[in-house]
Design goal:
A six-stranded antiparallel barrel has the order 1-2-11-10-7-12. A four-stranded antiparallel beta sheet has the order 5-4-3-6. It has a two-stranded antiparallel sheet with strand order 8-9. Strand 10 and strand 11 form a beta hairpin. The chain is mainly beta and 209 residues long. The longest helix is centred in the N-terminal third of the chain and has 8 residues. It has two domains: 151 residues, Elongation Factor Tu (Ef-tu), domain 3 (Beta Barrel), CATH 2.40.30.10; 33 residues, no CATH class.
Length: 209
């Protein structure tokens, strides 16, 4: 199974032997605990549930504590599932570290993008904006007409308008693992990943590679 949970540390750059610079995002990945294995006979599908980031026991509900005690796992803040096809190569109670991945592999990194609050059409949807000349005074960043003629006589659902921006689940696909440090549980991937520094990210084997 190729999947880990981690926290985004931030961006930096690495130099290769020829002096070429590579922008990377550093992720503190693991250690993760295998808290449950689901199978088709009992659950209808096959997956592996892993937990990450120890927390205080008092912050968990009774059901969460009992669930983790099955595998002698500590109090964990985050639990996520990974769908599995084929044979399983992990067991309940096993600890997964950063060496699950190796340099040169392609991964998908899933995170929650930074929240931008309420934004207008120009920032949210890259609208061009209105002309500045010919007497325009306060319509430069306005969206323009949103309606239609007598038919259909209403605003179509899904029309791009101003609204809440960011704080969405975003997947950065096909990122190359540049460096893995199992001793410090660090993975460096080429390019940027969604989310703020310190936010939770999911690292999985790239689905389109």
């Amino acid at each position: 199974m190729k999947g880990l949970l981690g926290t985004k540390v931030g961006m930096t750059q690495l130099f290769d032997e020829e002096g070429r610079v590579t922008p990377v995002t550093v992720i503190e990945a693991g250690p993760c605990f295998v808290t449950q294995i689901k199978n088709k006979e009992n659950d209808g599908y096959q997956s592996v549930q892993i937990g990450f980031q120890e927390t205080q026991s008092k912050k968990l509900s009774g059901g969460e504590k009992g669930h983790l005690q099955r595998t002698s796992a500590p109090s964990l803040k985050h639990l996520r599932e990974f769908r599995i096809k084929g044979d399983l190569d992990v067991a309940e109670g096993q600890i997964l570290k950063a060496d699950v991945f190796s340099a040169g592999e392609y991964v998908d990194v899933i995170g929650t993008s930074k929240g931008k609050g309420f934004q207008g059409g120009m920032k949210r949807h890259n609208f061009r904006g209105a002309q500045i000349t010919h007497g325009q005074s306060d319509r430069q960043r306005a969206p323009g007409s949103i309606g239609s003629n007598s038919f259909p006589g209403r605003v179509i659902k899904g029309l791009r308008m101003a609204g809440h921006m960011g704080a969405d689940r975003v997947t950065a696909q096909n990122l190359v693992v540049v460096k893995v440090d199992p001793e410090r549980n660090i993975i460096a991937v080429r390019g940027s990943v969604p989310g703020a520094n310190g936010s939770l990210v999911v690292i999985r084997q790239a689905k389109k590679k």
